[in-house]
Design goal:
62% of the residues lie in helices and 12% in strands. The chain is built from 22 helices and 15 strands. Strands 2-1-4-5-6-7 form a 6-stranded antiparallel β-sheet, with helices on one face. Strands 8-12-13-3-14-15 form a 6-stranded mixed β-sheet, sandwiched between helices. The longest helix has 67 residues. The chain is flat.
């Protein structure tokens, strides 16, 4: 089994790195390499360059890495034309080298990837590289590259994310995916749907059976009420033959003996019902007394119609005669109206206008005199007489005004009388015109009705005495034997009742066979096949559930074995990092995938007990212990720790230094930190290390490192 370690890394144009020159080279010739510097100085970009070289742009996606800051991440430096990362890994066991190169440019299609194995074989197959290393991106981000956010996900994320993180740490991702794929199979909902459809079908079938039985019971009771002794098809056929025989006995001429029951089956009965209905209708139109009654009714209708038109005409003539008596004929009324409108009213209005004109002059003169009555030297405005007396003139004008009022009053009364007379005559003319038009319409309608009657009965209505002739025929036909007509009507009614009874029997009798068909449905091959499908579905679900239980058991056992192997290591690391008295140990529940805080006789979910620093210690303990496990399936012999000491105080950082010291013989460690006390602890306690310090960073040059041992 290979054990690849980091050999060297070359970065050009990646993130904060400039693409000028030959790039920045890192050499990993010690068990521990530390990248130290301020926040934003390029430390994390250095670590992430390794991820990008191995997995490409997928690492710039939050959904692939579970790292919030990777959302909408930029790979290339803002001013860089290209980005290029070269990574060399060396197998600790064989010394074989694996060289990986990935680059990208601003040009479309400018991306490139290839790797060269120890025997010189070159390949561009990224999947082949991942299979060679035994790791995919998800496993890499949880088992190799430990970002601070990934550490947190072990404890404080959603249960599903905690479970995924622990699966990756323990190399159970593939088994978990298989288990989840089987678990996601929606066999229970499908089975529930099949059972529901079966229950619904059976419910509908039973309801239909009960409904049909209830209809049959009601039908038997109705048959007794109708006086039907035997409710059967034979009884229906017999009744149909009796109806046919009686209808045939009443038919005459071409209609004789045309109605019969063609055969004794349901379709023939349905045809017979339609034919018998038409036959009874024909008998009603042509049977005994029908023609006489029809002629009598038709003559009465013509007579009433014409008489009503004549009555209307007479009413119009009477109204016209009354109006003539009141104000004269239409011509005379129109002449009087014209005389009023064209002579009398204009002459009267002209006389009134003259009086109004004189009255207006007098009124205006009075107003002028009243305005100047106090002037001392007022002359006559007409003749300029200096002896003009305005007071006397005012008195004279007031007298004239009284005379004109006396002249105007009778003129107004006379005009009012003429206007009233004019309105009366106009209404008279309108009424006469209305009645005259109505009279013409009624006369036309009477003429048309009489012409229709003449066309149908010329021997009656072509004569002047058509009323007398019509009445004689009506009286004669009325004297026909009414008892014969009544007997015939009753015969037809009886036939219709028996035909209706036959129709009712034809609707009810199929209920028995319909019920038998419904009862036989459950015995059909189709229904039995459906039951077989339902039974097979239940068996299939049981098998799937068995597979699910087997997968779950295998997953639990695998997790339990790996956790048993690392339980003591996890607790040793946690005791050294956390040093809690009340809950000194932690463990992972393989069933619930929960991290538990453990005391001598008590277990609690860690999130409920531990503070933020303790949680960080717990997460680091789990990661570092599992990373040292010999059961891990990937081929990488290094771990990358990105700022692992957040929320840890100086004593905890010193303890972490001791843990890393013990781990260095087993795993190569690449770590980034910005905390000086942690770096000081490393320098004082860890000798086999190399430190790259960010001395300067500008946007144009990128980070400039200083290296020391």
């Amino acid at each position: 089994m290979a054990n690849y370690r980091l050999s060297h890394l070359k970065i050009l144009g990646f993130r904060g790195y400039s693409d000028e020159g030959d790039g920045v080279v890192f050499r990993f010739d010690r068990p521990l390499t530390v990248v130290f510097g301020r926040q934003g100085g390029g430390k994390s970009s250095t670590l992430t360059a390794i991820s990008w070289c191995l997995f490409g742009d997928k690492i710039a996606n939050k959904s692939n890495t579970n790292i919030q800051e990777r959302k909408n991440w930029m790979i290339r430096h803002l001013n860089a034309k290209q980005v290029r990362v070269e990574l060399e890994l060396i197998d600790k066991e064989t010394g074989g080298r694996l060289r990986i190169t990935r680059s990208d440019t601003k040009k479309k299609g400018g991306s490139s990837f290839f790797f060269v194995t120890h025997d010189g074989e070159r390949s561009q197959d990224e999947q082949a590289l991942h299979e060679l290393l035994g790791v995919n991106l998800a496993d890499y981000m949880s088992c190799i590259h430990l970002h601070q956010e990934v550490i947190s996900s072990l404890l404080i994320k959603e249960p599903k994310e905690r479970k995924n993180a622990l699966d990756r740490l323990m190399g159970l991702t593939e088994l978990r995916e298989l288990f989840d794929s089987v678990k996601r199979a929606k066999v229970k909902p499908i089975l529930k749907e099949i059972d529901g459809q079966a229950e619904e079908f059976e419910r509908l079938l039973n309801n239909k059976i009960e409904s049909t039985r209830a209809q049959m019971i009601d039908a038997k009771m109705e048959a007794r009420r109708r006086g039907i002794a035997t409710l059967s098809w034979d009884g229906a056929y017999t009744l149909a033959k009796d109806i046919a025989t009686e209808i045939s006995s009443h038919q005459q001429g071409e209609e004789s003996a045309t109605l019969r029951l063609s055969s004794e089956d349901e379709d023939a009965l349905q045809d017979f019902l339609e034919e018998s209905k038409e036959a009874i209708r024909t008998l009603r139109q042509t049977g005994t007394g029908q023609q006489a009654r029809s002629q009598r009714e038709e003559l009465s209708r013509y007579k009433v119609e014409i008489t009503e038109f004549e009555a209307g005409m007479q009413a119009c003539e009477d109204a016209i005669e009354t109006l003539h008596a009141d104000l004269g004929t239409l011509e005379a009324t129109r002449a009087t109206l014209r005389d009023i409108q064209e002579v009398a009213l204009p002459a009267l209005q002209e006389r009134r206008r003259k009086v109004d004109l004189r009255a207006g002059i007098v009124q205006e003169t009075k107003k002028w005199l009243q305005a100047h009555v106090n002037d001392e030297h007022l002359s006559c405005p007409v003749c300029a007489n200096p002896t003009f007396d305005p007071v006397q003139t005012l008195q004279e004008l007031e007298g004239w005004q009284g005379e004109m009022d006396e002249l105007l009053a009778p003129l107004l009364r006379e005009e009012e009388a003429l206007q009233s007379k004019r309105q009366e005559l106009e209404k008279h003319v309108a009424d006469l015109s209305t009645f005259d038009k109505r009279l013409q319409v009624l006369a036309q309608q009477r003429h048309q009705a009489l012409e229709r009657a003449k066309e149908k009965h010329p021997h009656i209505f072509a004569h002047d005495d058509w009323r007398e002739r019509c009445q004689r025929i009506i009286d004669k036909e009325t004297q026909l034997a009414p008892q014969d007509v009544d007997v015939w009507e009753q015969t037809l009614y009886d036939l219709e009742d028996r035909r209706e009874q036959l129709a009712w029997m034809c609707n009810i009798l199929p209920l028995r066979s319909r019920l038998d068909e419904l009862l036989a449905l459950k015995e059909t091959d189709t229904f039995k096949r459906f039951e077989g499908v339902q039974q097979n579905a239940h068996q299939f679900v049981e098998r799937v559930q068995g597979v699910q239980r087997a997968f779950e058991l295998a997953l639990t056992n695998a997790a339990q074995h790996k956790l048993e192997d690392t339980r003591e290591t996890i607790n040793q690391i946690y005791r050294r990092l956390g040093a809690r008295v009340d809950f000194p140990d932690i463990e992972i529940d393989p069933q619930r995938y929960e991290v538990m805080a453990v005391s001598e006789n008590r277990k609690e979910v860690a999130l409920r007990i531990l503070n933020k620093g303790d949680i960080n210690c717990a997460a680091l303990s789990i990661f570092l212990a599992l990373a040292r496990s010999q059961r891990l399936v990937h081929q990488l012999g290094f771990v990358i720790l990105d700022d692992p000491t957040q929320c840890l105080d100086t004593p905890h950082k010193l303890k972490l230094t001791d843990v890393l010291s013990e781990m260095m013989p087993e795993k190569q460690i690449l770590m980034a930190t910005s905390e000086e006390d942690f770096l000081e602890s490393i320098e004082q306690n860890l000798q086999a290390r190399r430190i790259y310090t960010v001395k300067e960073w500008t946007q144009s040059t990128g980070p400039i490192f200083e290296s020391r041992y």
